[in-house]
Amino acid sequence: MPPDCRSSSQLPLRLVILPFSTTVAPFLHTTTLDPRTPDLYNSHHHSHSSIAALIPSIPHVNPSHHPSYYRHWLPVITSSRHLSPDDIHIITLPRPYAAQLLHAGQFGIQTLRVHESDKEDLSEEFPRVTTRGVRVADLFGASGEGGIEKEYFLRTDACSVKDGKNGTQPIRSVEDIWTRLATSHRVIHGLEHLFGEGAAKETEAGGEDKVETGVGNEREEWLEPAGKKEKQAGAKAASIDLYLIRFNPHITSAHEY
Predict the structure, then answer these.
(1) Which of 12-26, 32-46, 109-123 has the highest average model confidence (pLDDT)?
(2) DSSP E strand boundaries for the chain
């Protein structure tokens, strides 16, 4: 990204519009340039490292996805859906639990089920309370005089988990939560990116710990540390916020909040 195109946290933002003739020019001058690898502009998804290597003369920044995180839009979404605070619950997964999810996901995203050897750890280590101090176990089961079962829609800050097992069905238990997470390509790719970033930072700082997770998906760049202290601590302090929203079959069976 050119220096004039900064992140939204560095306003004002200057939008640069490129003429079509500029973008198509590299494809026309085939005598000096391979048309398959235009050196100026194209619409392909490139990593930050590949762009920097191709055009080192221009400083590039890796833009943050933080402005698009679900937490920022939650007040607007809940008010437009006329949801009460009791309809929304946030559960914070600590980094060690995220590591366990990543391990389980290597099997889960291939089979859409959680391996028996991972079930006990995912179940026992799952947080017991929400960020408001509500017991997670109390979120589920029948409620009210009619005995209506409590059902929720689940997502993270960066993505929904509808690509996990029974992804378009409501969440009805804690097991549904960690099963959905461990079988979601979106979530596991996001965790790979998170831990990959953490390993790189630790290596740069001279740390001894290194996490081998493979290559993450840069489109799932998510879960920056939220607070000032966490930002100073870096990737080691990162955690995952899960959002449980009361399920409305008229809205969430085929769509998402």
Answers:
(1) 109-123
(2) 88-93, 142-143, 148-149, 152-156, 240-246
